[in-house]
Write a structure and sequence with these properties.
CATH class of the largest domain: Alpha Beta
Distance between the termini: 26 Å
Number of helices: 15
Length: 449
């Protein structure tokens, strides 16, 4: 295999490019086609002037990378974070293109962000920043052009501000004072992840976590005892307790998975002793109660909750590093990229890793763990529930219809089960990993005439 020069790029972009390169050579694609596949169609970089509450004006850098529109309008979130960079956003945009292709939804891939620590802004300043971001991009987004959504440190409230600003700008351009309901909903389709009252979809908040559980259940139904885990009540450790991690843990717990440890950015919780986790019965954490406790305390430490009771004496604090190295059946990294890497890959004991975060495993660690026999469910399949329900939100807006939460969840299940079957069958047929199979399917669909 010939390798390109991949120096001076962010680790996530390097990992994604190496994965695409490996899958592409498996498909006998030339270097020229691979490079064209990775190159974004458009990159928008701009400065956003924001009037601060003290009267000063400050400029923040905004980015939007539109990677590929072969299968439909660009689709991807907007993150507000101090570590946002063009390279990071470019990597995530590529990932979105392939993720949508694997899921079979008619969207391309994009990603956006602003370099900012949103905690440093007041709510009014955050609103001005959100509206300013849209004003810079209004010409380049639209219900059939590019459809942004919330991502890290953005929310339905921020998206509602962006929708309102976009509609104001468009109404000014077309000179129309009042839009009828159908026209209004069509215009609101430019963003997904909106509040329910503003045209958002039921089931969107839980979609990424729910999708991960759907995929995990499909994996167990296909491979069963071949996974070498306790398939009746598998033990799971969940790193990350934000929207994705919390909903994944809660829904998995409701499906009789045994959630034995969870963590947030400050650390996690686990039972006091160090048992053989495979022997634990009926000891799954009470995830809603853990969240209630965390909301009161501000952190997970002391929130060991089982059977409707929180008892600090029963649990102990565990670091995020230690959580990743637990002897569990299934490990679910739900927070940051590259958390499993050269430093800790030899200490990973889980038999299955489900990538609920984007790019949580470096390419080097992926190769090592795969050779060791660890089954890795790739992020472009495992965490695609969010973009699938975003598609369903867009579909409802475009057609001026509303689906019940049950209908949304049913559609999500059907789409994900079809996607998993395609990836699994490709994996068996080609004798390759699930990750390589998923990338092969995505790349094939993006290149298909």
């Amino acid at each position: 295999m010939q390798h390109w020069k991949l120096k001076n790029i962010c680790p996530m972009l390097k990992t994604i490019q190496l994965t695409i390169q490996r899958a592409s050579y498996g498909l006998n694609l030339s270097d020229a086609i691979i490079k064209k596949l990775i190159k974004p169609e458009h990159i928008h970089e701009f400065l956003i002037p924001v009037k601060l509450d003290n009267g000063e004006e400050k400029y923040f850098k905004g980015i939007r990378v539109q990677h590929n529109s072969k299968l439909g309008p660009y689709k991807g979130g907007i993150r507000f974070h101090k570590d946002v960079s063009k390279e990071q956003v470019s990597a995530l945009a590529v990932l979105m293109s392939i993720k949508c292709a694997v899921s079979g939804i008619p969207f391309g891939g994009a990603k956006g962000g602003v370099i900012i620590d949103p905690k440093e802004l007041s709510e009014k300043e955050l609103e001005r920043l959100s509206r300013g971001y849209v004003s810079k991009l209004a010409l380049f987004i639209g219900p059939h052009i590019d459809i942004p959504a919330p991502d890290v440190n953005t929310s339905s409230k921020i998206i509602d501000w962006m929708v309102d600003e976009y509609i104001k700008i468009k109404k000014k351009q077309i000179g129309k004072k009042k839009l009828n309901n159908k026209e209004l909903m069509n215009m609101k389709a430019v963003f997904t992840g909106k509040s329910i009252k503003n045209g958002g979809s039921l089931g969107r908040t839980e979609a990424t976590g729910r999708g991960g559980v759907i995929v995990l259940k499909q994996l167990i139904s296909k491979l069963g005892n071949k996974l070498n885990i306790n398939i009746k009540s598998p033990t799971i450790a969940v790193q990350g307790f934000g929207n994705v991690g919390y909903n994944f843990a809660e829904i998995a717990g409701n499906e009789r998975f045994n959630i034995i440890s969870v963590s947030d950015s400050k650390g996690g919780i686990i039972k006091n002793d160090k048992p053989n986790f495979g022997d634990i019965k009926n000891k799954s954490l009470d995830i809603p109660l853990v969240m209630e406790c965390k909301s009161e305390k501000g952190h997970l430490a002391g929130c060991y909750c089982v059977g409707g009771v929180c008892d600090v004496r029963e649990g102990r604090v565990i670091s995020n590093t230690d959580l990743l190295e637990l002897s569990v059946d299934i490990l679910a990294p739900c927070a940051l990229g590259n958390v499993i890497n050269r430093e800790n890959m030899k200490n990973i004991k889980a038999k299955v890793i489900i990538e609920m975060a984007n790019g949580p495993i470096t390419d080097e660690a992926y190769s090592y763990l795969t050779k060791k026999g660890v089954i890795i469910v790739p992020d472009i399949l495992a965490n695609s529930g969010g973009v699938i329900v975003s598609y369903l939100e867009w579909f409802q807006n475009i057609n001026n219809k509303k689906m019940t939460e049950r209908q949304v969840n049913k559609k999500l299940k059907d789409i994900l089960e079809n996607a998993f079957s395609a990836v699994y069958n490709q994996s068996v047929k080609r004798h390759i990993s699930l990750k390589d199979a998923a990338f092969e399917i995505g790349i094939n669909r993006l290149l298909k005439d």
